[in-house]
Amino acid sequence: MLPEARPGRSVGMQIRHRGLMATLGVLALAACGGGGGSSAANSSSPQSGVAAPAQRADAATVQAVPVAQGPRIIRNASLTLEVANGDFDKVLTRLIDLSANEGGYLSASEAGGDGGDHIRTGTFTFAVPVDRYEETIKTLRGYGTVQSFRAGSQDVSAQYVDLQSRLKNAEAQRDAMLALLTRATQISDIINIQNQVGQIEAQIEQLKGQIDYLDHATSYSTISVSLREAAVAAKDQLGLRSALDTALADFFVSIDFMVIALGALAPYLLLVLAGLGGFVLWRRRRLART
Predict the structure, then answer these.
(1) How many CB atoms are closer than 10 A to CB 249?
(2) CA 173/CA 203 separation, integer angstroms
(3) Would you call 233 helix, strand, or coil by DSSP?
(4) Most distant CA pair in the chain, distance
């Protein structure tokens, strides 16, 4: 129960003696206990009549805060797919349909051409429910040739619980300040309390925003897909390149044939040369005798 103000001392002196925001949290618990006792009694004083609604509002607010169930994990993946030339639009349509069929949505997209070859590339990011994450990855692998793949996860369970605790403490501090505001009688005290309530309300909104972000990030997984069309061989308009390639191929085929033929005839050529040399030698000896 909050102590009554002594004669000659203002509410502002009481606030300055309490000082720190942590003490205000203790005052909130005390205010809840005091208000409960007044409600059980006859509630004859005006202060008890104001404190009771504040307690009921505080209880409703605490019950409305979502409680984390199970681990809170952020999952994401990125992969690069190469598709056949000319299939870019078809695969893109399948990506959009897949995200919608899995209960997700397309969050970002970027597409363009690659140089003078007119090869189309693009990066598309979409989110799917976390329970459809793995099945969606398997389906995406069948849309083209996987060039690269990366997956990651982040456990934010501790951060989520910490934010929930900080939110409850901030709401308790706000309610304690509102209870003090009903007792304030001087303008300076009212302005001081309202300023502090405004600061606490800003902190509460910030904490709620962070909790909402984690709720969404752990309920939907983000997948980034990079699409790239496969390159095609350049066309030879005049046929000169094809003719040159054919001539070079035929030349090397002829060289190979000649080497093989020489290798096969080499033993016979040696025998012929040996016989021819023997005949020349015999011929010279015969001429020398005559």
Answers:
(1) 10
(2) 11
(3) coil
(4) 165
* CB of 237 closer than 8 Å to CB of 91: no
Residues 129, 130, 134, 137, Cα dihedral to 10°: 50
The rounded distance, in Å, linking the Cα atoms of 238 and 241 is 8
Q: For residue range 168-194, list pLDDT tens digits in order.
A: 999 999 999 999 999 988 999 999 999
Give the number of other CB atoms < 10 A from CB of residue 55. Answer: 20
Strands (E) across the chain are located at 73-83, 105-114, 119-129, 145-155, 220-229
pLDDT value for 233: 57
pLDDT at residue 65 greater than cutoff 60: no
Q: How far apart are CA 192 and CA 181, in angstroms?
A: 9
The neighbouring-strand residues paired with 151 are 77
DSSP 186: S
Planar angle of CA 50, 51, 53, nearest 5 degrees: 80
Give the single-character DSSP code of 156: -
